[in-house]
Amino acid sequence: MTRRKRGQPGGKSGRSRRTTGGDTVGLRIIGGRFRGRKLLYGGDRRVRPMKDRVREALFNLIGPRIRQKHAVDLFAGTGALGLEAISRGAVRATLIEQHYPTAAILRRNVAALEIDEIVHIVTADVFVWAARKPELSGDPWVVFSSPPYDFYVDRADEMLGLIGRLMESAPAESIFAVEADRRFDFTQLPDATAWDVRTYPPATVGVWRKPALDGGDS
Q: Rounded to whole angstroms, how far apart are CA atoms 113 and 28?
């Protein structure tokens, strides 16, 4: 695992193999209408990629519930989680990435897939962005939180506040997917008993679904 200090790029979604140029080795969308499409990855070791097997397991947990949702990728990196969501049926995506060079690569990935009209890229600090209570579409969200693992230790209160506020403001039937490592105690999250937590060493993934307004399962 690559650790990253505050202010360095955040992200995931692919393999962590370094490249020498702007292209990537092995980073691609693994399901849906864009399955097999390659994504650019600058090879910056400070961007911690989510392993393919974890990404696939995560989307298996979410399943068809991804459809017709607004994907919100909080620490977007190359954008592979948000773009994977679009590939599998999400109707739009908001991708937040603070690091300008990484955000530039993200824009190239979105342009290559020709989905600029439904993907909004925000170059900002995630915590500041969320504190401003951004207006998103009325569709249910699928929120991905996959920051550097150290954030859950060094910035634990901020992470819990970030996730908690978004859970509270999310529309009914929204889904949250949180990736951390073994140091993070998922019982600290709001509605702790409702999280479906799975371990894919070294990653731990938790999925939470906000109930429908009628109280049924989303």
A: 12
